[in-house]
């Protein structure tokens, strides 16, 4: 940019100080942002800037007024405007959005978990809403956000035709294990598994739509693929073989429920299903399960909506997983504004089925109003819609995920905390009283 | 060698859960170490292990007992044995010492500040005092301790004959600056400068030994003035907010420059463990050699450690052998240990106070003196060494075991307290917009 940078005038002499604690934290840790030594009663904008791996810039900002001693504390003071408002300790992260002029349909996902997300937090004079890059801030610091705690090992897994990555917590073990499945977009997405390993669970991120074997043979994997992944975990010397759970989001839920109910090989200790459904052809193959993506509906903004494909929830038992067969605790997480899958309706039907079968004591449903489909680890930006390459149609299109940003972000924070407690309670011995402290989250 | 056991029971693992916060922190940040899901009332050992850049192993450990919930909280519970006892939230770091069987006279210093120090924090069953490597801990985590905050820039300086490393805080600035000088061991020691930059000061760690230019006293003086000006003229530095920070010999240089320079005007000075013995018109090398001519005053104690403390005392009576501290005209903070066995810091501080009061600038002086504290007053939570191997740089001497002094617990307390006072002194004098006052 060749225009001269605007330097704030006499405010410079006050040397505003900015602190962010911790300066290096895990993605699910809260931080405290303090601005000090500003003039009292002064208008300030606290701004966050992140350049993602794809080269796109994301920003968020909040408008504040310093108190009588010239301090702003983002965890205690309300934002009066910006990309978030009210008292929002983590608003600068969850309200991140692509900077003006960016191409539409972006989604923020970390693919390389071995290096952190770097976020530049700055303080600007006045209540600004644009042109941040043309100004010199009063102060700025860099904050690192990690998906991997120190000592977590990252182990690529290629045996048995699998395309997967195993994340092991530090320490001797043995650890409980978890199979981690994403949805219809495919790829090997590692960040949730690495974060779970940072919480003491040996986690295997599994690519089941675009693994090497499928790319080479053009054939979808069969259900034994998942059982092989399970066995890898079960037989690992640092994994406690009888303490393995499974977590799936979206299409991953379909697989998880199928395995939990029907697999003879997998003895799951617990399962977590996020934004998914039990509706699927019971005797179907992977391809059958995927065929659901064929029926679509288009919204006003030309965003494809998928949710209707599975509705209404069938009463025919040939078309949904027999929930009565479940023998392990199940946590179901749904967003009531999910525009991609009828997760809410499915959850209600699952509950009914389990009540009738007498195993509903195993079920916990977390249902979040105004939350959308992509319920991810907390403090990552919400995408109401984004470009999505469907595995079924192979085309890139705009998918509507749903959710209203503030409510969705709150849902992510709450769901993650409850998910960790659920996994801890079910994968570790429950004999000791009291839940482990996760108060730093 | 750690043997990994494969448990084949059907019940879920009962391993306790260890959480250390933050897992990646600055070296002067406190740690919160909590163990949960232990059997209630069970004895455990918390252990920390560090593998240094020199390939030595350092360890610390504390003996605890879990409560009725099966929990141990290091910041709240007491250690009943180990390398530290009592309620010590940072004991696992400051009480570290070389593992049994290590070489003698070791000192722990981080030379590469771009990478963190790694500590393995583990929980062992029972109250263990040795043989940690032959046992498998119940659980362990890895913790990173950094001297550099994210965004701090590290720049090699080779300018106008000055060699050093400049550390610049993140952000547009401008920032106050600091000239940072270590002691007679020489070399380019960066960690304190990196840490100061992480606190918002542009800091230049200077290499003022091994330099061919340092031959005459005059040139040498100019070397420090040039270094000071490099900071002062940096586009991200506020020119009238540059201070000086020295330890040991670096303190001496600081006082000398503050008193005698007509070009350089430090905004404030911090002198840790320094004396004010600087014979006029002598070079630094000669200052170091001064004790050699007094080798009859060198004492070697019962452990074969060299004690230099008393070699300098006679200089107190000779004004021509001391910095003219009456000419210092900026706030100056002296930080000293009462058990400093290398330099008679206590006596020097007293003498400096006398001289400055007589000259009328005593109001600029603040001093802190810590009991049972030795010479090497470093950033907090770093281990204490009562003696270590030392080879004076630039002088043809052999390596000796030099006695620094101090008892571990009081010395570590002093480091923690001094650092806080140092940061607050710097904040007040270099950041505050009102004219600086000397007294803390």
UniProtKB/TrEMBL annotation, chain A:
SUPFAM superfamilies: alpha/beta-Hydrolases (SSF53474)
Name of the protein this chain belongs to: Peroxisomal succinyl-coenzyme A thioesterase-like
Gene Ontology biological process terms from the UniProt entry: acyl-CoA metabolic process; fatty acid metabolic process
GO terms for MF: fatty acyl-CoA hydrolase activity
Domain BAAT/Acyl-CoA thioester hydrolase C-terminal: 221-428
Record: active site: 250, 338, 373
Coiled-coil residue spans: none
InterPro entries: AB_hydrolase_fold, Acyl-CoA_thioEstase_long-chain, BAAT_C, Thio_Ohase/aa_AcTrfase, Thio_Ohase/BAAT_N
Family designation: Belongs to the C/M/P thioester hydrolase family.
Domain Acyl-CoA thioester hydrolase/bile acid-CoA amino acid N-acetyltransferase: 28-159
Gene: LOC115586658
The organism of origin for this protein: Sparus aurata (Gilthead sea bream)
UniProtKB/TrEMBL annotation, chain B:
Annotated InterPro entries: AB_hydrolase_fold, Acyl-CoA_thioEstase_long-chain, BAAT_C, Thio_Ohase/aa_AcTrfase, Thio_Ohase/BAAT_N
Domain Acyl-CoA thioester hydrolase/bile acid-CoA amino acid N-acetyltransferase: 28-158
Xref: Pfam families: BAAT_C, Bile_Hydr_Trans
Positions of the catalytic residues: 248, 340, 375
Any one biological process term the GO annotation gives: acyl-CoA metabolic process
Molecular-function GO term, any one: fatty acyl-CoA hydrolase activity
Gene3D superfamilies: Acyl-CoA thioester hydrolase/BAAT N-terminal domain (2.60.40.2240), alpha/beta hydrolase (3.40.50.1820)
SUPFAM superfamilies: alpha/beta-Hydrolases
Sequence ranges assigned to domain BAAT/Acyl-CoA thioester hydrolase C-terminal in this UniProt record: 220-431
Similarity section: Belongs to the C/M/P thioester hydrolase family.
Protein name: Acyl-CoA thioesterase 18
Organism: Sparus aurata (Gilthead sea bream)
Lineage start: Eukaryota, Metazoa, Chordata, Craniata, Vertebrata
Name of the gene: LOC115595289
